[in-house]
Amino acid sequence: MALPATPHSPGRLVVVQSLKRKRCAGCRRGPLSLLVLEDGAPRCLDCADLGHLVFLPRGDTALTRRSREGSALSAVVVRFNRRKSRYERQGVLVEEAALVRAEARCLADAEARRRRRARDARRRAVEDERFAVAFAAEILRLFPGCPAERARAIAAHASVRGSGRVGRSAAGRALTEGAVISAVVAAVRHVDTPYDQLLMSGVSRYEARRRITPAVESVLRTWQEAGEATG
């Protein structure tokens, strides 16, 4: 049974990953894992003058593109998918020197990206630290009686990047009074009341919040009045 016709594009050589035990029509070597169809007859890579090329599997778009750009001779490798009745690309054949150069360029790019990520991470860390300090200062302005260490802990927790907490919201980033108070209330709820234990015992969130509201308000009032007394 003859091989199905391979796709053809002008100026592009096509090599087939054979599914059948074919022999080269020229040198009779086989079975061939890779072959070229010339006038319907299978040829090995050596007979097709492609034997010096190396195979690069698909997957790395940048490496493939650079390898083909740097290779004077290249070929697309395809394999026939019986279920879909079509040829599918498996990779390319390129000159080994071109592949080596392309790998070096990609590694250099990867190192550049690594350095850029490191710089970005340092910049974000500095920004996050400054924001946490500003957030803690705003907590202490609104609640002067709040221990400084506690204010720093609340600010750090509320402003963790990617956490979705109030400190990362637009209002939080703007240090609005409502956002800061919400962060303080949440911290007091979890640390200074039995709220978590109520949830673990099966009490609904709304009921648990109702029960601990007086305790939360007492802590907030103490922190506010402490500042007024000092003033």
TrEMBL record:
Domain of life of the organism encoding this protein: Bacteria
Pfam families documented for this protein: DUF2293
Record-annotated DUF2293 domain positions: 139-224
Protein name: DUF2293 domain-containing protein
Organism: Streptomyces musisoli
